[in-house]
From TrEMBL, chain A:
Keywords for the protein's UniProt record, in alphabetical order: Calcium, Coiled coil, Metal-binding
Metal-binding in keyword set: yes
Domain EH span(s) in chain numbering: 191-276
Gene: Reps2
Biased composition (Pro residues): 94-107, 424-435
Entry keyword Kinase: no
Protein name as it appears in the record: REPS2 protein
Source organism (scientific name): Ibidorhyncha struthersii
From TrEMBL, chain B:
SUPFAM superfamilies (UniProt xref): SNARE-like (SSF64356)
Protein family per UniProt: Belongs to the TRAPP small subunits family. Sedlin subfamily.
Protein name per Swiss-Prot or TrEMBL: Trafficking protein particle complex subunit 2-like protein
Annotated Gene3D superfamilies: 3.30.450.70
Protein localization: Cytoplasm, Perinuclear region; Endoplasmic reticulum; Golgi apparatus
The gene coding this protein: Trappc2l
Classification via CDD domains: TRAPPC2L (cd14854)
PANTHER family linked: TRAFFICKING PROTEIN PARTICLE COMPLEX SUBUNIT 2
Organism in which the protein naturally occurs: Ibidorhyncha struthersii
Coiled-coil ranges (or none): none
Alphabetized UniProt keyword annotations: Cytoplasm, Endoplasmic reticulum, ER-Golgi transport, Golgi apparatus, Transport
Pfam families named in the record: Sedlin_N
A biological-process GO annotation: endoplasmic reticulum to Golgi vesicle-mediated transport
One Gene Ontology CC term in the entry: perinuclear region of cytoplasm
Length: 573, 139
């Protein structure tokens, strides 16, 4: 096979060679002779059951769930690993086969995204020169961790599995040159959903604009310096009208996220962030994977690369959490929200896709209460607490990659923690206990049937939308208090069970009459209202404190100015 | 040689100044600053006809030794001043007009940016690129 596919001649397995090799393997397994002509037949996907890859083992169970398509992911995963090692050989001597599976990051949701994320996951890992090895090792070790590990590492393989599962057939085509373009400027599906939700929080009508001042306030919260924000605005406001449409907003948000993760801002708007592109993308999430060439967005050094890819991976791992850890009661709300996101996502013919995208959405939603702001630092902080492994779409950093923002980050963390912990005292933990595992299992069952997803997801959508509103409000006001942080751990579980129960219950029993669903909704709404009130109280307190601080600072300033005046040499003659 | 300057009202301090090539810059800075007086004189002479689009372009302010100074003022009294080499005879009036128009458009784009506070110095990369390309065309 090696000879036939040309690898022997060329000396390595390039994408073309690899695909041909896999096709030949499939042919051989199906009993066809190993010849070039064989690949023209309609072959089933090659089976690699005998391969002892960890990824293999992990994909074993989920593979059954999704049938035939999974064999392709195995193939593609192998492709990943081989290709990775191939590239890795050129650039990095050591690249354990595991890591490439982790590196295809982020959202599996739509086909056009997947090749891209796969592509830039790979190229990114390829580019990691000095940081590559530790990165890989970390990934490997992370893979060994159980789901309880509070970092994304635990899920990369799983995420990759589900990722690749959804990718599956599309990837077979050898037009993978576009895949391997390193592309941090593409917006993944879950990122897009997150951006869209943020947009909604600022401006309910998705077709109209966000005005400049509103956008300014919003992006100022990201704590980026004003000149950079100014530049981001220039890049993203393509029609220069002082307002952001939805695609412009997504582009701006994406640039902010990228900047926070260490990427230098480009001089011109990347192709994939152009509004036309984003418009088309949002309307047609299902696209062929043969896509744009990579444009010259060079990554900065290895560190930001690693951060970004890690965060990318993190979002990817959210997905497997839901699908693979269905029995894990930790992610109940995500699964429930998964259902709701099934509605939002357009792909209909791929069950696993909807499951996954729903998972991402739920993860994003879940992450939002944790983070309390869309700044990456607070999210990262939440991550550090180890509450939940998955990370929200705004890619958080594990560590502060820029020393200049270190203090800010710390302050911000404390603030956000303060906000989070400040939440807890007011509300009595009147939330229902965490839903049982059985519920989640049922939820997962439900999710696997998209038709049944519809009614519960609709109920879901309402409650989750409300949750979004509730949860989006606290993030908008970073706190400056320094409170204990242990409370924040409590808070998110409290919130998530709330979301869980309210959302999972309707999802669990799709056959229930609508009245029951509406009572659940009412309960959800009431809880949301209560949370809202609490948030308001906390924020009001915060506001008064900040006002006080402001007054003091003003006084100081006046005192200093008078001093200055006195000290100034008298010039009047 | 091309120098451009944008000054904001009311104190007329410069928001943006760029000259190509960069030697002898101070002389040109001085020139544009002095030409601001001429601009002020022109707009005060116009009286109530300030809103007219034609008045935005002030034309040749005054020719000095070996270069010409052109002025342009927006409705919000933001002044654009351009100094070009007299040896550059290829530059016609309408070309200068178009350059001012481009400057004005870019300036409004900057204004649309909510992160830009009017009165700040202009640090926009897009604006710089535009000015650079314009200047490259001339020189």
């Amino acid at each position: 096979i090696t000879e036939v596919c040309g690898a022997k001649r060329v000396g390595y397995f390039g994408p073309a060679q690899f695909y041909i090799a896999l096709k030949l393997i499939a042919a051989a397994q199906s009993g066809f002779p190993v010849r070039i002509e064989s690949i023209k037949n309609e072959l089933p996907l090659p089976r690699f059951m005998a391969l002892k890859n960890d990824s293999e083992v992990r994909y074993g169970t989920p593979a059954e769930l999704h049938g035939v398509k999974f064999q392709v992911p195995h193939a593609t995963l192998e492709k990943n690993s081989y290709k990775r090692t191939d590239e890795g050989e050129k650039q990095e001597p050591k690249s354990p086969p595991m890591s490439p599976i982790c590196s295809p990051p982020a959202s599996p949701s739509t086909y056009q995204r997947i090749p891209l994320s796969y592509g830039y996951g790979k190229s990114r890992s390829g580019l990691e020169q000095q940081h590559g090895a530790p990165y890989e090792i970390r990934h490997s070790t992370h893979q060994q961790d159980g789901p309880s590990s509070g970092n994304y590492g635990a899920k990369p393989a799983l995420s990759c599995s589900t990722l690749n599962r959804s990718l599956s057939a599309e990837r077979e085509q050898p037009d993978s040159s576009a895949h391997y373009s390193d592309d941090p400027w593409r917006i993944t599906e879950e990122q897009r959903d997150y951006y869209i939700n943020q947009f909604r929080s600022l401006q309910p009508d998705l077709n109209s604009f966000i005005s400049g001042s509103v956008a300014k306030n919003f992006f100022t919260k990201s704590k980026l310096p004003i000149p950079e924000l100014s530049h981001i605005w220039e890049l993203s406001d393509v029609d220069c009208d002082g307002a952001l449409t939805l695609p412009e907003f997504c582009a701006a948000f994406h640039l902010v996220v990228a900047r926070k993760n260490g990427y230098q801002l480009p001089e011109t708007l990347p192709e994939t962030l152009l509004p036309e592109y984003l418009q088309a993308a949002s309307l047609k999430p299902m696209r062929d994977c043969a896509l744009f060439d990579s444009y010259s967005e060079s990554l900065p050094g290895g560190q930001p690369t690693r951060d970004f890819s890690r965060t990318e991976k993190a979002s990817a791992e959210e997905v497997p959490d839901n699908s693979a850890l269905l029995q894990d009661g930790k992610k109940e709300d995500k699964q429930a929200l998964k259902v709701s996101t099934a509605l939002k996502m357009i792909p209909k013919e791929f069950q696993h896709l909807t499951v996954k995208t729903a998972a991402q959405e739920s993860n994003a939603l879940k992450a939002r209460p944790r983070s309390r702001s869309y700044s990456s630092t607070s999210i990262e902080d939440a991550m550090k607490k180890g509450e939940e492994p998955p990370t929200p779409p705004p890619r958080p950093q594990k560590s502060h990659s820029r020393a200049s923002s270190l203090d800010l980050n710390k302050i911000f963390q404390q603030n956000t923690q303060a906000v989070r912990s400040g939440w807890l005292p007011p509300p009595p933990p009147a939330l229902p206990p965490r839903p049982s595992v059985s519920q989640t299992e049922q939820v997962s069952e439900v999710e696997l049937h998209p038709q049944m997803n519809r009614p519960p997801s609709q109920a879901e959508e309402n409650s989750s939308a409300k949750k979004e509103v509730v949860l989006a409000q606290p993030p908008s006001k970073p706190a400056r208090r320094k409170l204990r942080t242990e409370t924040q751990g409590l808070e998110t579980p409290e919130l998530s069970p709330t979301i869980n129960v309210t959302s999972s219950l309707p999802a669990v029993k799709p056959h229930l009459p609508v009245q029951k669903q509406s009572t659940k909704q009412k309960r959800a709404i009431q809880t949301a209202i209560r949370k809202n009130k609490e948030a308001n109280a906390v924020l009001a307190r915060l506001n008064s404190e900040l006002q006080q601080q402001l007054k003091e600072v003003h006084k100081e300033r006046i005192a200093l100015e008078t001093q200055l005046e006195q000290l100034r040499p008298v010039t009047v003659l | 040689v091309l120098v451009s300057l944008i000054c904001s009202p009311p104190q007329n301090y410069p928001l943006y100044i760029r000259s190509v090539p960069t030697e002898n810059e101070l002389k040109f800075h001085y020139t544009v600053h002095t030409s601001l007086d001429v601009v002020d004189e022109k707009i005060s002479a116009m009286g109530k006809a300030l809103v007219d689009q034609r008045e935005l372009y002030l034309g040749l302010l005054y020719p000095t030794e070996d270069y010409k100074v052109y002025g342009y003022v927006t409705n919000s009294k933001v002044k654009f001043v351009m100094v070009v080499d007299s040896s550059n005879t290829a530059l016609r009036d309408n070309e200068i007009r178009s350059m001012f128009r481009k400057l004005h458009n870019s300036y409004t784009d900057i204004m649309c940016n909510p992160f830009y506070n009017p009165g700040d110095r202009i640090h926009s990369r897009a604006f710089d690129n535009m000015v650079n390309s314009m200047m490259m065309q001339v020189c």
